[in-house]
Amino acid sequence: MASPSPFLDNFKIPDYILVPDSQVENVPVVPHSPVLVFINSKSGGQLGGDLFKTYSTLLNPKQVFDLGEHAPDKVLRTVYANLESLNVQGDQFAKEIRERLKLIVAGGDGTAGWLLGVVCDLKLSHPPPVATVPLGTGNNLPFAFGWGKKNPTTDQRSVETFLDQVMKAKKMKIDNWHILMRMKAPKEGTCDPIPPLELPHSLHAFHRVSEADELNMEGCHTFRGGFWNYFSMGMDAQVSYAFHSERKKNPEKFKNQLINQTTYAKLGCSQGWFFASLSQPTNRNIAQLAKVKFMKRHGEWKDLVIPPSIRSIVCLNLPSFSGGLNPWGTPNRRKQSDRDLTPPYVDDGLLEVVGFRNAWHGLILLAPKGHGTRLAQAHRIRFEFHKGTADHTFMRIDGEPWKQPLPVDDDTVVVEISHLGQVNMLSTLDCKSKSVYDPSSPHHEDEEDDSGEEDSLAEEFRKFGAADTFRIPDEVDFSHLS
After folding, report:
1. Rg (CA), the chain
2. Considering the entire predicted model, what is its pTM?
3. pLDDT digits (tens, 9 = 90+) for 242-263
4. Cα 322 to Cα 274, 281, 362, 442, distances in angstroms
5. How many CA atoms lie within 13 Å of 462's alpha carbon, on the beta-carbon side?
6. Mutual orientation of helices 257-270 and 235-249 as an angle, nearest 10°?
7. Distance between CA 373 and CA 310 in Å, rounded?
8. Tens digits of per-residue pLDDT, 76-87?
């Protein structure tokens, strides 16, 4: 049993704030950083469950939620409705709690994205900023905001250290992105997902987007969702798909973060990612798979020129990919002037679009100032797939991959990504992400040298997030989100 600590009073929330119609308590001091804690107890092997026990012991157990048992949208609706009711009654303590409230989510990137989707979707008054505990394999979201990428220890000291960081953390806005996918409906079976297609939890089926949508065609289905970190297509998504398929077949072999990362690397070799130009047919090149258009700002669509050797394309929102690598880097002043390129800010309404030839090309990210092939920065981007030499490709959203069928007749598969809005995150002093509005984010910090550079040339958006498009069906194996 943990010993009482005055420090923990900075975070504790009394029962009457959390449970509607409970007896109002006379609490003398408003906590500095009241928190609601959401934990995927199935993430990180046993770590998720252990972390849940520690938080429940140190804080009020009623402010700590196991995501396997409590849907975050229902929790937040209840708490915020109660806060509003108490505020109307003139409860100043409740008013202060609402203005100071912060969220902590512990799990993999899928879990963190789920909670962010809920916050975005609910359109709360005083939406709370979110801190992320790394408890997955890649942990790109936590790493991008300075929370680390190694799974934490779960003892009292470790949790108190994290809470101290939460109390001192800075609020930071980040962009979120809407994704729309249309494809021909299957001749047999139901939709959402299309059997045997297993789509990410963030993509859900709609028979039509709106009555006026010109692309609503008989026999077609529309999928809609969103992401926070990246959308990718090609070889990297193929390796990720192989990893997730293997983990689904043999979950007992994937209980350790180091083992997971080692297995991932081995699959990269076995899938031919390191020798793509030799082992993979040319019909896997992105330029042959899809016609790609992008929009830099609000305006007209432009064709995206993709070099024929590119096997993987990444549309990146955060400077953290494949466990913390930054594929875009920082373009030097000449590139910023000649090609209208900017550093990768997380709140500028732009995605960085980067290409890779193979895994060896990806290894350049490990070098100082290394980066992939910068293709464009986009406010919107559209992929159109017509009948061709390949019958499928692989796609991935924030770590969740799927095998995407491509047209076999004269139909078209369309994937369109557009900027939706922003959400609040909490960041530490080790934050890797940069804000275009923050004077402490230098525009030319760590910019690359010229040497060694390799450059190649409505209604459907209204709802977004876990409350609808990020919802987790009851029958879903929750451990998949870890």
Report:
1. 23
2. 0.79
3. 766 666 666 655 555 555 555 4
4. 15, 24, 10, 25
5. 5
6. 130
7. 9
8. 999 999 999 999
